[in-house]
Amino acid sequence: MRMPKTRPPSPASHWQSTRRLTLALLLVWFVLTFGVIFFARELSGMRWFGWPLSFYMAAQGLALAYLLIVAVYTWQMRKIDRRQPDREQQ
Amino acid sequence: MKDSSFFRRLVRYYAWYTGGFILLLVVLAILEKEGLPRTWIGYLFMFATIVLYAGIGIMSRTSDVSEYYVAGRRVPGLFNGMATAADWISAATFISLAGGLYLQGFDGLAYIIGWTGGYCLVALLIAPYLRKFGQYTIPDFLAARYRGRTSSNPIRILAVAATVVISFIYVVAQIYGVGLITSRFTGVDFSVGIFLGLASILVCSFLGGMRAITWTQVAQYIIILFAYLIPVVWLSMEHTHSPVAQVSYGSVLAQITSIEKKLDVDPKEIEVRAIFKANADDYDARLRNLPKSWEQGRIEAQQHLELLKRNNSSLIEIRAANRALNSYPKTPEEAERKWQQDKASSLAHAEPPVPQATPFPGATREASDIRRNNFLALVFCLMMGTASLPHILMRYYTTPSVQESRKSVFWTLFFILLIYLTVPALAVLVKYYIYTSLVGSDYAHLPEWVSYWANIDKSNPLVSITDFNHDGLVQLSEITLDGDMIMLATPEIAGLPYFVSGLVAAGGLAAALSTADGLLLTISNALSHDVYYKMIDPHASTAKRVTISKLLLLVVALLAAYTASLKPGDILSMVGAAFSLAASTLFPVLALGVFWKRGNQQGAIAAIVAGFGTCIYYMLHTYPALGGSAAGQWFHIAPMAAGIFGVPAGLLALVVVSLLTPPPDPRAMKLVDQIRAP
Fold it and tell me: Would residue A44 count as lying in a domain?
């Protein structure tokens, strides 16, 4: 490898961090979606600023959570990309 | 540096544009006060917006390949997000979604979840890698990734076929929406409306391809946003005393729930429901006695007409009897279909109102579980479908870098949420109005909007209120609302001036046109770039390629308009089918393309065929209009969510067949490595 040791990332480790991040966020995505819908009847008894919790989550909460997931991904991927020695930036 | 000055220039242009649009609204509001007739306001809105789109199209005309296919790859993330949001917000979202939420209650929220959650998949699994790949179309990507040792054509053909089929279903629904809106707001004939809309689509995409579409879509998004938010803000001020409906409608929801409980046990409501139950029983009896009952019914209708004529009854009565006879089913088969429908609709009316906030209402735990499973299935179909729609994914080729494409997915979802968080609020506010102002009001003095919207399509009224129990009051069960009118009629329901109705129509038109633009370009690019350039004539000059693409665009647009003029199905169900189809066919190969190296050509072919086949088979097997029956359902899943079986079938086929056949071509492996690198 051409890079000095202080800048460890290789293509393989870059891919590994990408994959780990993707998997973690997909897990959050899936558990949230599935959990809210599967337990909607149980959650509807709870209140959230005047809404039944399950209605709020389905109408707004999940969508906002998805936005957050995409934001975290974009932000973390920028960090992961920066750790990579300058490759073609096109 | 050049990028940032380009970005600033764009911001300046669109700020001016937004200002100009607000000025137009103000001028129209003043003109209306001064007594400008309603039809003129409708015309002015249609005319001004269509000229605007055409103007952007003409200014962005191009015959450069990269400009035409991918807008020169210099669209900043924020603007690409806005354009994608307009591309995404279709006629179905704009016109039908609020109505769906109104009619279906909690079940309708599946669309909100599915159509936003899909962007997680787009961001995490697909968009950045497509941008890194950096070609022109989705079949391009699949053909390069799943190339065979000798040729990449088999997979390219399949991908083109999938792209064309999915986009075509979707574009027909959009053009149908265009016809609906133009005919309603300007009074022209439905098919004339379709071709008017088509003309404006063509001026734009025909001249400037992706470049023109991108900048038009940004402009259209701004109109869509205004059109959706203004009426909702107004309604919200009226009912919750806060302009931010998204935050304040919780209290209205609580009131709706308590009104629903009262309506459930209201004696008058029960009376009307009993009438509907009796009607349904009557249809049931007739259905059981087919074909004799059909014969008998026809004779009775004839005798009734003759009796009226002999007794010199009023002309109105005779005409009504004549119409009844004319619309009487022509064959016993037709009678069976019609009576089944009538029976179902009577039965639906015989039920107490669908509770707005209760998840999965059902008589028994099993019935409720079935609804929950259908909800889950539909949500996942819509999500995976979102992540496989070629016209959306194609937009992520247009950003300057991979980094920007990720940002652009974020902005897409952000701009979509501005609308989507408002949709449930709108549905709840309109429902509150209906429950409090219309139910229990005097039947002889219905509000003006009821007769206006009832008269637009007399054979198939969008709203009808009939005093079934003759008590002179309106009961909830006596009101029939078509979901498609809720959004379009909101300004009138809220008592807003007419120019807001014009704005809403312009917004609906913008939503339908922007999506249709993107879809038509996707289809014609798949045909011209992938079929003509890559397979038929690889030596074609760039000028020739663009010309071919433009010609194909024209042909596809005319075909789509013709199909839409036949008025097939209702908008939401058609689009729903496209999502399941897209998910089953393309999601497995797209998602595993980057994340699983071992997938090869044979596996991809198997995946596309298996996914598509499973989905189509299930739809044909279970959808009554296509000759199936609900009895054939697996796990009681509705045909619209067929993708929930199609996607696993596709994934399984991809993995099994790939592992049984030799590893993919070394060039494909290299491509994957290259795409994965930053």
Answer: yes
Q: Which residue has the tokens 């079986």?
A: B645
pTM attached to this predicted model: 0.90
Tokens of B51: 């000229």
Option in B368, B380, B406 nearest A74 (CB): B406
Residue A58 belongs to what domain range?
A: 18-83
Q: Which residues on adjacent β-strands are paired with residue A52?
A: A47
Distance CA A73, CA B407 (A): 9
Position of tokens 């059902």? B362
Q: Which residues of chain B make contact with A34, given a CB cutoff of 8 A? A: 376
Q: Which of A19, A26, A63 sits opposite B112 (nearest CB)?
A: A63
ipTM of the prediction: 0.89
| Residue in chain B nearest A40 by alpha carbon | B359
Contact B391, B519 (CB under 8 A): yes
Counting the structural domains of chain A, the total is 1
Instruction: Please check whether residue A11 lies inside any domain of the structure.
Output: no
d(CA B561, CA B565): 6
Domain membership flag for residue A12: no
Nearest of B474, B484, B467, B427 to residue B447 by alpha carbon? B474
A3 domain-assigned: no
Interchain contact, B413 vs A55, CB within 8 Å = no
Cα B436 from Cα B428, distance rounded (Å): 12
Per-residue pLDDT tens for B376-389? 999 999 999 999 99
Q: B672: nearest CA in chain A?
A: A15
Residue with tokens 């006695």: B289
